[in-house]
Amino acid sequence: MQNCFYGWYFKCQSNTQTLAIIPAIHRRKGISTCSIQVISDKAVWAAEFAGNAFHRQGKTIAIGKNRFGERGIRLSLNTQELSVNGKLDFGPLLPLKYDIMGPFARLPFWECRHSVWSMYHPVSGRICLNGESYCFQDAWGYWEGDSGRSFPREYFWTQCCLPKGAVMLSAAEVSLVGIHFTGIIGVVLWEGKEYRVATYLGAALRQLQPERIRITQGSLELEVGLKAADLCPLKAPADGAMARTIHESVACRVFYRFRKSGRTIFALESDRASVEYEYKKEG
Fold first, then answer.
1. In the predicted model, is pLDDT for residue 282 greater than 60?
2. What angle do CA 18, 55, 236 make, to 5 degrees?
3. Which residue, 110, 131, 136, 195, is most buried by CB atoms nearer than 10 A?
């Protein structure tokens, strides 16, 4: 594929601090480049590299001196605007029972494919970011990835590690061979049990507003309410190039309610939730 990208999203979350690191490689008109974006609850920084700075071996990737993989993250990056150094170690990863895209994973020509490498894993270590220390002890991590040509034109995404599990939900306007529809993929991990909501399982979007999204699927209902967020701009792929600006809050206040057969499994609020919202507001 001439114009394409592959990006990995590593989120590390403690009770008081959150960092997300996004290494990516992108190709446009035969020219490859790569980048690392660092997102805190205060700002976003980005560093760009030539394509030959990128190396991959299995699930482990490297951009320059920076390493990302199953065992953790090693960062050594210094530019005029960004100084980030340190290491984070990961405990055992918790992958999904099967591909998040289900049977859709076998179909070609997707504009964007999504992967979830680990829903919930221990994180420990320390990162120094522009003179500020981010210490993770008894912390948790999440690891996902995207590949294809471009991000969906409009979408909602949220993720959060919770006291007894984790949640990830995405609803996007997707395109497949000229057919456009709202695709839903999501996972609720709670007390060791995995619940999947997805278009291919019959999930339906019942409500979508800037502050609220509600999904139903048979006896399951997942509701997400955005309480407060300061969204920061970051780069995203458009036809292979990191030419689009999207907006994310890596740590904002979100309410989650998950119900099964009318019974509330959990209803809680977290100020460590991550959100991207790229739908146009109605009216």
1. no
2. 50
3. 136
How far apart, in whole angstroms, are the C-alpha atoms of residue 110 and residue 104? 9
Would you place residue 281 in the very low, low, confident or very high pLDDT band (cuts 50, 70, 90)? low
Distances (CA, A) of 254 to 68, 144, 153, 171, 191: 28, 20, 23, 16, 20
pLDDT in tens, 62-77: 999 999 999 999 999 9
Q: State how far the Cα of 18 lies from the Cα of 251, in Å rounded to an integer.
A: 6
Q: Which two tokens stand for residue 153?
A: 């034109």
Distances (CA, A) of 199 to 36, 127, 166, 188, 266: 32, 38, 20, 15, 23
Q: How many CB atoms lie within 10 A of CB 199?
A: 19
What pLDDT, on the 0 to 100 scale, is given for residue 211? 85
Q: What is the mean pLDDT of residues 215-242?
A: 94
Tokens of 28: 């446009």
Helix/strand/coil (H/E/C) assignment for every residue in 249-283: EEEEEEEEEEEECCEEEEEEEEEEEEEEECCCCCC
> Quick one: pLDDT at residue 130?
97
pTM of the predicted model, to two decimals?
A: 0.95
Element (H, E) at 160: strand 155-162
Query: What pLDDT score was predicted for residue 283?
Result: 39
What does 212-246 look like in DSSP terms, one character per residue? EEEEEETTEEEEEEEEE---EEEEEEETTEEEEEE
148-182 pLDDT tens trace: 999 999 999 999 999 899 999 999 998 777 778 89
What value, to the nearest 5°, has the Cα angle with vertex 57 and ends 91 and 51? 115
- CA-angle at 82, arms to 90 and 58, nearest 5°: 35
The β-bridge partners of 197 are 186
